[in-house]
Amino acid sequence: MKKVIAIIVSVIFVLAITAVSFAAEQKAAPAAEKKEAAKPAEKKAEEKKAPAKVKQVTGEVAAVDAKANTLTVKAEKADVTITTDDKTVVKIGKDKKALADIKVGDKVTVKYAEVDGKNVAKSIMVTAAPAKKEAAKPAEKKAEPAKPAEPAKKK
């Protein structure tokens, strides 16, 4: 009885090893065909470098040139010039806007990547400049209704 079990286990082991080797051969054959087809693709991949690391800068807008699609941000350390393209997303609050809607003095957070030596923006998030908020507050005070006059006192 022990010999029969040992023979059955041995046969199952041999079949398992054989199945694994056939599976490895089948993967190797298509891989060889893919390598030959991938040679032209490798040239394209070499031209395209690894995706650039996304960086972020926060600061005040120093200059905007909508015609040249550039934006200069005055950050803490230095001014950063950003180029925009058709894939750049510009948001003021929750609304999507265009680069021309950004004004000098606005506070922005720009996510960008360096491509071919240029800083290309992925997204630009705009918050209104603090000076504009202060200017709006006095206008609100003027809009308050006048207080009723006190009755005249008798002497």
What does this structure look like?
This protein is α+β, with helices and mostly antiparallel strands and 155 residues long. The chain has two domains: 1-48; 54-131, OB fold (Dihydrolipoamide Acetyltransferase, E2P) (Beta Barrel). 38% of the residues lie in helices and 31% in strands. It has two helices and seven strands. The protein has a seven-stranded mixed sheet, with no helix packed on it. A hairpin with a 2-residue loop joins β4 and β5 (95-97). The relative contact order is 0.11.
Give the secondary structure arrangement, pairings included.
Elements: H1 2-47, E1 54-65, E2 70-74, E3 79-83, E4 89-92, E5 95-97, E6 107-115, E7 118-127, H2 130-142
Parallel strand pairs: 4-7
Antiparallel strand pairs: 1-2, 1-6, 2-3, 4-5, 6-7
User: Helix/strand-derived class?
Assistant: alpha+beta
Task: Give the N-to-C terminal Cα separation.
Answer: 129 Å
* Secondary-structure element series: HEEEEEEEH
Give me the CATH architecture of the largest domain, please.
Beta Barrel
- Helical proportion, percent range: 25-40%
Strand adjacency order, main sheet: 3-2-1-6-7-4-5
By CATH, the topology of the largest domain is: OB fold (Dihydrolipoamide Acetyltransferase, E2P)
Please tell me what the overall shape is.
elongated
Keywords summarizing the entry:
about 160 residues; OB fold (Dihydrolipoamide Acetyltransferase, E2P)
What's a quick, concise take on this entry?
The chain is an alpha+beta fold and 155 residues long. The chain contains two helices and seven strands; from the N terminus they run αβββββββα.
